[in-house]
Amino acid sequence: MYIKKQRLLTPGPTPLLPQALHAMMGSDMHHRTEDFRKVYKSVLNGLKETMQTQNDVIVLVGSGSAAMEAAIQNCFSVGEEVLVCTAGKFGERWTALTKGFGLKPTVIEQPYGGAVTPAQVAAAFEANPNFRAVFIQASETSTGAAHDIEGIAKVIRNYDALFVIDAITGLGTMPLKIDEWGLDIVIGGSQKAFMIPPGLAFLSISDRAWKRMETSNIARFYFDLRRERKNAVNGESAWTPAVSLLLAMDAALKYIRDLGMDNLIKNAQLLARATRAAATALGLELLSGNNPGGSVTAICAPPGMDSSLIVKDFRNRFGSIIANGQGSMKGQIFRIAHLGYFDFGDLFAMVAELEIILAANGYPVQFGTGVAAVQNVYAEAALAKELAKEPVAV
Questions:
Q1: With the C-alpha atoms ordered 217, 221, 226, 230, is the resulting torsion angle positive or negative?
Q2: CB atoms < 10 A from the CB of 389, how many?
Q3: Which helix (H) or strand (E) holds 259?
Q4: Is the peptide bond before 13 cis (omega within 30 degrees of 0)?
Q5: Helix, strand or coil, per DSSP, at residue 256
Q6: In Å, what is the CA distance from 151 to each residue of 105, 116, 117, 154?
Q7: Measured between alpha carbons, how far is 293 from 272 in angstroms, rounded to an integer?
């Protein structure tokens, strides 16, 4: 109780991969040299492999929002009608961005904790088949909810509209079959499941999206994706790159390749399932119980208790950093992340801490209840995996 190690349990930034931290020490590298070109090409190829797509992937210096902005700047024209699906703070960001660049968004809005359905998207297109794009989050980080990207993609295939997905917390936490489902632009960020510091954003871009750029009339300069594509062929970025972060990303992509992207997703989803089980065992309500994602779990504070108190106690008592609610959910929910470099040891500790915090603030807790729920999920999954193994020949 006297020594407290800081533990980062937020949905971004997330805990850093040690190999990536070590790789950053080699950042005294000039970005117009062959040494750097090898790293840059390795990152671009690694992202394509990890995202499991044949589409080009472009890397930008900036947070994930930079890639969201770039998608609009490069592919659309002022006055075009688009469809925005929003069920949380980051869906609201799509609305603000499309309006900010002069597009005309029709907004399908679900309450925080909900999700827009394929049927709602189909109804919107029946009313107006001329939408030029659909914007959505794969995983709404502010609520822990996941959208049915495959189902919505099937609807959009019938129209001449691009499908643009903020998958910043979706990549590495849920299946996203970019080529098979026809996802035109899929956006990611470095500080999520990719286990490195903030500062890199990236986009996979379909042939349809590249073609749309030929007629876009929105001004762009720094975030000119066609310029980036031209330079990337030679292993260079259009502007000065974040060398240290690209070295870290190269190391992280190698780790993910060895682990397997499917296993990274399964890890997040298993931790999410165990967290939901713990919350339920403790009598706590889940915000997105009907459509939970694998990136983060949003848990409602007990009646009469401000979630800000829970967040503060995690930090002050244990040095653990969790996330409060965002937007209208601030003070009502707290959020526990599962994406990237998290394991069950992190979760055992977090749930034990939560039990103590709840008890200290007057909420009735039988110590060990939530931890036992996590242990049961782990034991069931581990046992199933062990029983599935082939017998060892002797």
A1: positive
A2: 7
A3: helix 243-259
A4: yes
A5: helix
A6: 21, 11, 8, 5
A7: 8
Structure confidence by residue, pLDDT tens digits, 291-333:
999 999 999 999 999 999 999 999 999 999 999 999 889 999 9
At residue 270, the pLDDT reads 97
Task: Describe the crossing of helices 261-281 and 243-259 by its angle, rounded to 10 degrees.
Answer: 80
Q: pLDDT of 114-171, one tens digit each? A: 999 999 999 999 999 999 999 999 999 999 999 999 999 999 999 999 999 999 999 9
Q: Residues in the chain with pLDDT < 70? A: 386-394
Reduced to 3 states, what is the DSSP secondary structure of residue 333?
A: strand
CA distance 34 to 375: 49
* Domains annotated on the chain, with CATH: 7-13+260-388 (3.90.1150.10), 18-259 (3.40.640.10)
Query: DSSP letter at 151?
Result: H
Q: What's the whole-model pTM score?
A: 0.95
Q: What span, in angstroms and rounded, lies between the C-alpha atoms of 143 and 87?
A: 8
Tokens in use for 321?
Answer: 């950093």
What does pLDDT average to over the chain?
Answer: 96
- How many angstroms separate the CA atoms of 143 and 158, rounded? 30
Q: Output phi, psi for 335, to 5 deg.
A: -125, 135
137 bridge partner residues: 166
Q: How far are the Cα atoms of 79, 80, 131 from residue 105, in angstroms, in the given order?
A: 9, 8, 9
Give the C-alpha separation, 208 to 25, whole Å: 39
All residues at 6 or more sequence positions from 97 whose CB lies less than 8 Å from its CB, including other chains: 68, 69, 72
Q: Which two tokens stand for residue 68?
A: 């969201």
Residue 286 DSSP label: B
Nearest Cα neighbor of 178 from 294, 57, 298, 89 is 57
Give the span between the Cα atoms of 227 and 223, in whole angstroms.
9
- Taking the C-alpha atoms of residue 239 and residue 221, their distance in angstroms, rounded to an integer, is 11
Supply angle C-alpha 198, 146, 301, rounded to 5: 85
With the CA atoms of 189, 193, 198 and 201 taken in that order, what torsion angle do they form, in degrees rounded to the nearest 10? -10
> What was the pLDDT predicted at 327?
85
Distance CA 329, CA 325 (A): 5
